[in-house]
Amino acid sequence: MKMTKIRGSRINTMISDQFEIWHVEDEVTNEKAIYHYHDYYEIHATLTGTAEFFIEGEIFTISPGTILLIHSNDLHRILKQNSDYFERVYIFVTPYFLEKHSTILSNLENAFKPSISNNHRSKVIKVSLEVLKEQLHFVTETSNNANKQEFGSEISLENRVVDYIVEINRWVNDQENVEEINGKRDSEMEGMINYVSENLISPSLTLEDMESHFFINKYHIIREFKKYTGLSFYQYVLKRRLLLSKQLLLKNPSAIEVFSECGFASYTNFLRAFKKEFSMTPKEFLKQSVNDMIRINHM
Questions:
Q1: Most buried residue, 16, 59, 140, 185, by CB count within 10 Å?
Q2: Who has greater pLDDT, 115 or 207?
Q3: Which domains are delineated in the chain?
Q4: Strands (E), 56-186
Q5: What is the pTM of this model?
């Protein structure tokens, strides 16, 4: 599977395959900012500048003090940069990393669980820029001392990442900091996205089915999916089914039983599509999931 290419300072090179930290200041272009998803969580913090961001069909503006908690397998990308300078910090963490540092009383994955008020798994948090910079001071500090690897520095870095995620969970628990993901997607598109999610298991999920259900011309549906997701209707459905298959495989490792549960008409078509999308077979995916390493899938 291809690794992502990010222009910026990678803070914890070769220290851990359970988390990665990137301090990025480069200009956003269409060539760099592509639609993608991954099997782990992303914490995206904006320090300077503004941009338009896409998560799961909705578009909204991020600004200094905005923290995005992007759930695994949620489709997202930066659409465009609105300011001359755009500084942000990405932290990628695996579910295993959060589980390892959780306790019975404090589950660090709680920050990424769906809100009670809606089905959105990803969240937007807004805090003061001063507070955010204080929490992320260790990133710039580590970057400045990248060539001074002292004994125990990697342990200290991991502990500071955990402290940051603990604070994020506190912010999420304090609902005043959490903003609903209410972007520019209209109710019509939201209805279509929800309908696709609820009917992925059905092989009869087609443009004609959508057309008759919503009383909308199929060409209008095609345009709307391309506009809001960057994908054609059938590309979107296929990728959603494949992402569902990965979730089901983690619960039931039998691919021959799983393929029909995510809307594929034949086992052969499922295997071909899975290999093309993820550059690995279901068996290889299950073997990789045991290692739980950081990897990114581009659209």
A1: 185
A2: 207
A3: 9-179 (2.60.120.280), 187-298 (1.10.10.60)
A4: 58-62, 66-70, 76-81, 87-93, 123-126, 178-179
A5: 0.76
